[in-house]
Each structure stands twice: as structure tokens, then as C-alpha cells.
Design brief:
Layout: H1 5-36, H2 39-61, H3 72-101, H4 104-109, H5 115-138, H6 150-175, H7 181-197, H8 210-218, H9 222-234, H10 240-246, E1 251-252, E2 255-256, H11 259-282
Antiparallel strand pairs: 1-2
Helix pairs in contact: 1-5, 2-3, 3-5, 3-6, 3-7, 3-9, 5-6, 5-11, 6-7, 6-9, 6-11, 9-11
């Protein structure tokens, strides 16, 4: 009889994992269906990055000289990509506040699934929809001098998904304690706007004042934006002078942080935020 216990335990564990995976998939599918039915949201979320890229980028290019062979819009492009997922992902996360107001969140929380499955499914859905929106912007890469290299595009999509997952999880974390959408919107803006401006999305990391350099290195979004800029520059013939002024190196105490470690920091912070969100929702009524 005892010899059958390990087999039964494995069967129960496998069944439980399949159940949790199915619940996560259902929450993800709900986000995808909601996204497909909200075309105005897709359009609105794309307009702002396009304005930054072609209006602000073109205007600043006339006064900011990045050097021969480097268009300022090329420098700006990874920051605009990050912006395209920033707002969409964060708002996907705080949409849980709507679910709470309409009672759908309570139904999910009392369902016979773990809170982790709900949170991860929500984050996956928000990250997927935000990344899909950013892919539309990738189609414009050639317009700003970024090559359509398959490896480059794949690397950018992966980095965008990591950033989108991070930002969606932040929105979910906010939703764990905010009960009204009127409070959720300004709270999310209070977080995502500083993250955008302190990530180096709109300005180079070189020669920053000491206090600003510290803030950019404490910002987890920096470790998504700067790797995107690095992989783009690796596929371009950037003049040395322009690379020195507009490079994407992140340093800790004078040590240049490798790109893989930067990505690992972003992934680690994302995992921590998801764990906090799960813990908070476990105490949510």
C-alpha cells in the first residue's frame, strides 16, 4: 500500500498543475478577448508614442546633433518602444480595479484556483497585449534607420515582453489595495511617468548629474530600455563620437554592467513584484 503513495502523490500534483495552468490560460484568454474588442484603446495607446517619435524626435533632431550617421530618432526609438508598452501594460494591470467594482474579481478570488494563477494570468495577458501593440511600432523601424534584422527584432520583442510583464505586474500590485478607478488612474500615473523619464528613454545616460544618474540606475525600467538601445546600436555603424555621447552603457561604481545582467535585474524585479502581488491578493477579501 505504501508503494502506491508516491504514484498517487505525483498524479495529484500533476493534476493540480494542469488545473492551475488551465486557470492561468483562461485569465490570459479573457485579456486577449477584451483587447480584441477594444480597438479604440489600441489606437489611443499608439498615438502618443508616434507623436514622441516623429514630432518630438524630428523637432529635437534639428537641435540635437548625435553625430554623422546617427539620427536622433534612431536613439529615441527604443525609448518610444518602451513607452508603447508602458501605458498599455500598466492600465491592463489596474483594470482589475474595474473587475473589483463590477464584482468579477470576487468571483475569481473565490474560485478553486490559487491567487498566483490569477495574478500570473493577468500579467501574461497584459504583457501579451502590450507587446502586440509595440510590434506595430517595430514595423516603422526602417523609417528611423533601424534595420529589419530578424535577430534584432526578436531580441527587441523579448525585451519588450519583459518590460510589459514588469509594468503589468506593477499595475496588478496597485490593484490589490486600490478599490476605486478614480484613485487607480492618478496612482498609476504617479508611478509610470517617473519611470518613463528616469529610464533614459528620452535622454542619454552619459554625463548625467550624480543624483539623476543614481535615480536612473534604481529604476527597473532602465534595465529594459538600455538593453534595447544596446542591441540596436550593435546592428548599426554608430560613429565613436556619437556612441560616446549617446551610448547606452549602465555602470555600477564605474563597472559596466553586462547586458545579460541588466536583463536579469529586470526579470528579478518582475518576479519580486509578482510575488508581492500574489501575497497581497491572498489577503484580499
Amino acid at each position: 500500500m505504501t508503494s502506491t503513495l508516491p504514484v498517487r502523490y505525483k498524479e495529484i500534483t500533476a493534476s493540480g498543475l494542469r488545473h492551475e495552468a488551465r486557470a492561468t490560460t483562461m485569465v490570459w484568454r479573457r485579456e486577449m478577448i477584451r483587447f480584441s474588442h477594444d480597438r479604440m484603446r489600441v489606437f489611443a495607446m499608439l498615438v502618443q508614442p508616434l507623436l514622441f517619435l516623429f514630432v518630438m524626435g524630428t523637432g529635437l533632431a534639428s537641435v540635437v546633433r548625435a553625430g554623422d550617421g546617427l539620427d536622433f530618432r534612431t536613439f529615441l526609438f527604443p525609448g518610444v518602444l518602451a513607452m508603447s508598452v508602458l501605458f498599455s501594460a500598466a492600465f491592463s494591470g489596474i483594470s482589475l480595479v474595474w473587475d473589483r467594482e463590477f464584482g468579477f474579481l470576487r468571483e475569481m478570488l473565490v474560485a478553486p484556483v490559487s491567487k498566483a494563477a490569477i495574478v500570473v494570468g493577468k500579467c501574461l495577458g497584459g504583457a501579451t497585449t502590450a507587446t502586440l501593440q509595440a510590434v506595430v511600432l517595430l514595423a516603422l523601424a526602417g523609417v528611423v534607420g533601424v534595420p529589419y534584422h530578424p535577430v534584432l527584432l526578436a531580441e527587441l520583442v523579448v525585451l519588450l515582453f519583459i518590460g510589459a510583464f514588469m509594468l503589468t505586474s506593477m499595475g496588478v500590485l496597485l490593484s490589490a489595495r486600490i478599490t476605486q478607478i478614480q484613485a487607480a488612474m492618478p496612482a498609476s500615473q504617479l508611478i509610470i511617468m517617473p519611470m518613463m523619464f528616469l529610464s533614459g528613454a528620452l535622454f542619454p545616460m552619459a554625463n548625467l548629474p550624480g543624483w539623476l544618474a543614481v535615480l536612473t540606475k534604481l529604476n527597473p525600467l532602465t534595465y529594459v530600455v538600455q538593453p534595447m538601445r544596446t542591441v540596436i546600436f550593435e546592428h548599426l555603424d554608430v560613429p565613436p563620437a556619437a556612441l560616446a555621447a549617446f551610448g547606452s552603457d549602465v555602470t555600477w561604481g564605474g563597472w559596466q554592467v553586462p547586458i545579460l545582467l541588466q536583463v536579469a535585474v529586470a526579470v528579478g524585479v518582475t518576479g519580486l513584484i509578482v510575488a508581492l502581488a500574489v501575497a497581497l491578493f491572498s489577503r484580499t477579501d
